[in-house]
Amino acid sequence: MESFESVNTNNGSSVKKNWWWGTKGKGYQVPGPSRSSSSGRRSSDEIIPDELIVLDDSSLCNVPLELPTGVSRDTASKSFSKLTREDQMLSLRLNSVQDSMFKKAPRQSTDALLDPGPVSKEKQAVLSVGRPSWLPPKSKAEEKQHLREFEQIRKAALNYDKQSQKEKFKQMERQRKKNQYLVQLWDRYIFRYWPDSLASSKVTGVWREGIPSRVRGKAWQKIIGNHLQLDYQSFFLACERARKLGYSNENEQTQNVNMFCHDRSALEVDLESTIPQLHLFQKGEALHNDLVQLVLAYSAYRYNVRYVPGTSFIGALLLLNMNLTSAFNSMVNLLDRPFMQAVYTQDKEALASFTSLFLSSLKKSLPDLANHFKYTLQAQPDQYLYPLLQKFFIPMNSVDISSRIMDCYLLEEDPFLIQVLVALFSQLKPKLLDTDFRLMQNTLFYHPWKLGEEDEFMKKVFETSIS
Q1: Model's pTM, two decimal places?
Q2: Residue 170, burial from CB neighbour count under 10 angstroms (0-12, 13-18, 19+)
Q3: 350 and 405 part of one domain
Q4: Is 385 within a domain?
Q5: Planar angle of CA 297, 300, 304, nearest 5 degrees
Q6: Which residues contact 412 (CB under 8 A, 6 or more apart)?
Q7: Most-buried pick from 94, 378, 379, 428 (CB within 10 A)?
Q8: Are 353 and 402 in the same domain?
Q9: Coil, helix or strand for 212?
Q10: Model pLDDT for residues 24-35, shown as the tens digit of each residue
Q11: Cα–Cα distance for residue pair 308/311, rounded to 1 Å
């Protein structure tokens, strides 16, 4: 029972008052045992504010005309006898209220903006649902016709939903059968005759369509290889080196660092933006500790530093498809390639030929955007090209497209990334043509990309020419 405190104006004393509600045809409930009764008490959803009455605990005793279940008449009589003469007369007057006072006219469930006024009595019997009160009422024939039309529309919508569900299930079944066929093809032919199977044009076509997620990790490990001859213990040795490096003093770290900073906030920022839609790599999530171990072990193994900025994105993509030790071996071998080393060390001389080929391809495919970058924004390639390569298009991209890009990159190698860049800029062209340099950076590095369906985007990538 809800209550509130009020102050008596006569003597200033605090009087506790209670809200009591009436039930139709049953008067008002008695305090005490009647509150636990389920048959005599109205639920909170049925309370009508007009029926609420505030009475003092010292003078409240209302004898109901029909007692709720569990309340005896003797209890009500005793409570009634304790009242003063004036309170007894008040209680009798309350119980003599007619039921018509509690009856509410049926409410019209219409929009208040369309029908703000009350419904007239003349229209109450013929007014339709959603009919504004200022319009004349519909005739019976018109009402029946509209109801038939509404029923037809409802059935048509239900049929459309059923057909859509059927088409969706059919598409899912076709995709399931296709994936099953591709998995068998990879297991029985491509893996079995590896690496000779890579020379087949059919395998190249199948590879470009995307590796099934079930065998993607195995395919990546095979295509990346292990030219550094790493074994199972390599990861744990690298973790131990990273642990010791973390406890070393700042002077020793400065001597071992070339161009990578030791600010641990760089790792934290990268982790927060690493495939955020999956909620797997952020702090407190399932794969957070594995990713931290992976990138720190790689940094300690390869560069003798605590963290190489940007490597968390590729590490996360590898962890989604293989275990921790396999991801470490694949990551070390993949980023040991000359092009990847140049990207993560920001070696502009080593990337000069790649940058020149990209700029010429961008000018051929998107001349207005190339001129906009060069003359309007005066943006250098290291301001937008190298950060995209370091993040490997992962933070603002969907997982499916990012995995598909990795599939094809491992097969097509470095020039394929130019096709991806030109296709990406083509999709983001309307936003990239903004005259504000900061808005261009926000589009490329902070706002999620909407590249459409995976197959459609990859089709545009392969249609892009390199010159």
Answers
A1: 0.64
A2: exposed
A3: yes
A4: yes
A5: 170
A6: none
A7: 428
A8: yes
A9: coil
A10: 334 434 444 444
A11: 6
